[in-house]
Amino acid sequence: MGKSTKRKNTFLPSSDFIFDHIDLDPNSVKLITPIWKRSRYKAIVNWISQYSVSPYADNLDQLKGILESFHLLCDLELWEKASHLLALPLSAPTTELLNDQLDTWGYYAEQIGLYRQLEGKVRPALGASVSNRLGTAFYFMGNYEAASTHYHSALILAEASQDIRQQGDILGNIGNVYNALSEYDIAIGFIERSLTIAKACHDIQRVGEACRDLGNVHYYKGNYELALNSYQKSLDASLACLNIQGEIEALGNIGSVYLALDEYDCAMDNFKVSLHRSEEHQYLRGEMCALGNLGSIFLFQGRYLESIEYQERSLQLAKEISSPENESIALSGLGNVYFRCQEFEKALDFYLQDLRITQRIANRQNEAGALLNIGQAYLSVHNNKLATEYLQKGLELARDIGSLGLEKRGLQGLGDIFLSLRDYSKANVYYQQLLKNLEKTGFKSEKQATLSKLGLTYDVLGRFDQAINCYQCSLELANDAGDLVGRSTAVSGLGSVFSQLGNHTQALSFFKSWLTLTNILGDTCGQAFALCNVGETLMSLEKTHEAENHLLESLTIFRALGMESEENEVLMHLCILYETLGDLTLASEYRQKLSQ
Q1: So which residues are the signal peptide here (predicted)?
Q2: Per residue in 68-106, pLDDT tens?
């Protein structure tokens, strides 16, 4: 599985350096007996000293001499030398050891093949490292069961060799597996133990990694403030110890929090730097994540073609490095683009592919997201039955894993379904639960919209005091945020409630505010409804001539928009108005138009 690169590769040290590193004297090979053993030593010398390839060749082609030598050392059962060869210092952009660089490049399958040859063959301290690296390779390939098995084996070996620093590293990795399985409390326990050890050992790099891991747990739980704080600590530690990979990951993670908080400019800045640094240092996993994240921002900006391009590039990298988790994320991203473009069948296809992968690798977090996406897609094609089924499954799983962010999406979708079906009691239940969720996660804009929807359900159910309270809270939030659309929705709702309570003076005040806002927003349809409500309220206050003007203006707009049922409603109001004025001719004329 070669990863092509157009840049010139000069990361291998000299052959003399390599021989010194594995403690092998090429001149003494001729003295080795028996012949079969000498021939393998000669082959090692030749692979290291004579193998050459174009400096523009793929990374694995560049490494072929080293990797062939590794296999020969294993044939000779020189396990320590073989392991030292994998720890060869390189001069690649990240100046990492070979085994770390393989991870940076995303060669997970190749790592598994190499480390399995050393498993159980080396001393405990080294064996712990081998098992730990095997666990990490399986983790990034989405095989969490195998990852957990190897991490626990590594922990036993690290404890046997009394290597505290290595124990801390492994504990953090075990925590990451539990995080992937959405066992957040268990994950935090392991990661905090890892952080404590890292601080005690004054291991700045590991402190940064543990802060990153804690940030990931908080992020998946929807605790974005805690996540951002942890990610910033991770970035500071990575910069302090010149950990470029950690820096790239921290930038991407910080960007993801800003993206979740709808702060797109801040998110974009972090993702761009993360992508640049990833490309500069050939860190494919970082590049893959940055591409997908930038694709998500382009989606929110309405730059759909760019979004598709970036998500497809991210998907290709995910396939190249055998990362099913990131493959599922890219598929979800592509589904989101087509969903926004109202190509719901294409969106469904990508969402269903995403669901199959998440179920196969047992990533419950992403599975819940896929279920919710599918539910929203079915809702958009008016398949309320399947939409409800998938949204309820997604909500149940989101609650099971304790993800507030995903729970929010499920509650929102189900509330909207039952609102559209005019099942106001069920919609009310879901919106109440959604409001409690939003109070925990702090999404003020969504809280404002939810309060207005909740107010509508209370209004229809005749629970007017609660409706007024919801609308007033919604209005306060909209005023604080300068949200004209939110203000428009809230004042229209308040007008409706006070109208039903017979307080027409108060209702008129709110309806006039609504009319003013629709004019400012250029909301022609909303303007027509506001005019109609103002006119109807003025009739109740016996201000018939003023009411007539508003109703006629409303009628003109509804007619221009082709909204026949709304047009008929205004015609009915005009009939009543002219009958009240005693103008039976006009009343008859409008009633005739109504019958047509």
Answers
A1: none
A2: 999 999 999 999 999 999 999 987 555 678 998 888 777
